[in-house]
Amino acid sequence: MPRFAELRGKHPVFHYHGYGLEQTAGALRLRWHFSIDGLCEFHPETLVFTENLRILNDPNSPAAHELLFALGLVEAVSYWKCACPPEVVIHCGSLSEAEIRWWKRLWFGGLGEFFYRNAITTDEESFVRFRCDFVPTPDRTMHMQTAFHSSGLRLVPVGGGKDSCVTLELLHAAGVPLLGFTVNDQPARRETFVAAGFAPEQMLRTRRGIDPALLQRNAEGYWNGHTPFSAIVAFLGLFCAYLAGAEALVLSNEASADEASVPGTQVNHQYSKSFAFEQDMNWYISERFGLPIRYFSLLRPFHELQIACRFAALPQFHGAFKSCNAGSKANAWCGRCAKCLFVWLMLAPFLPQGELAAIFGRNLWEDPALEEELFGLLGLQTAKPFECVGTVEEARAALTLVLERCEATGKAAPPLLQNVPPECRLPHGQCVALLRAFRLEHGVPVTYNQSLERMRNDVSAAAESAGR
What's the pTM value of the predicted model, to 2 decimals? Predict the structure, then answer.
């Protein structure tokens, strides 16, 4: 019997029992209660630190409880996946049929990589059933009448990578009042935020924990794998935006996040960074919560290569930013993973090799062990690396621009690029067109048009240089 069917037979039901909020000195403690029949209970917690938070909207209001309930539904994915029970019973809230379809779409899309890498064959309709064993009380049905007190702020998630740096620089230049937001704070996040011109006191920190019972189940052989972490950031950010009276949650997700990780499929490591999820999120905020909070990505009109081009011109961030998951706990670039190589490749057309080596602590062009990762980025393997990386086209465009610069200066191609098949090079005009591109399908409000035009003009100027 396949492992998927075996576990579902042994553990037929996942229960979402409830959630809670406790106000302590310096923090709000959020907690959820789950269990799986025949296995164990889970009680994950998240802390929202309040030292830099002026609370304008009551964390115990019906609207806040609706947000906590929804955050529990996305937290539940991490615990459900260890055994993949065929039924989820919700004891602490109700969902309409449209909302059940919404959550199934998020779970299935967000678990696409998990299903693919564990060779699980299933579909969106049958992988799980949601059943609500809950009768709402009047206070749970009147949440949309709850007053929302606005602070005029925007809440901006800060990941410490180049994308959020570019967003912060654009917003600071435009004088947009904001509150930074981090999940599990790291030095790179604090340092890039300050480098953008903001004070440390303008940062709202949270800490999300994993219940040790889940780690124990993984050690025993229960499923583990990728979940839609950006959806957790979205709902936790929405809860914090509500508390702070922020009018928008401003992301740094780019157009490139829409490309599938496995060509010809819907498997996307970055599903919860996609424009489809962004649209779904706005529908849910409006239909379920009725809150005047926008959820959008300021960088959606642009590709990774364009963002890297702009970032290269912002040296105040170069010594502080980090995007490496493997080295995140040490606040370092490991220099040996696909994410490190991708960021290096994106910046390589726009920064001297010596500056890149100073950022990463080593010259990635000289490491032959990275050839497999490079070929994955260039679309020469079954799947792209399962990391937050850009499209195959822009990886090939960056490669082309690097090789063209070598040829123009009479230098040999870097060692790592010498075995790349010639067909990976793009026509020069295609590279320039990619740098000039502007995606019209986005959710950025018109009040941010000046920032978009500034970004577009800066990158277009670099494209002009590349075109000569």
Answer: 0.96
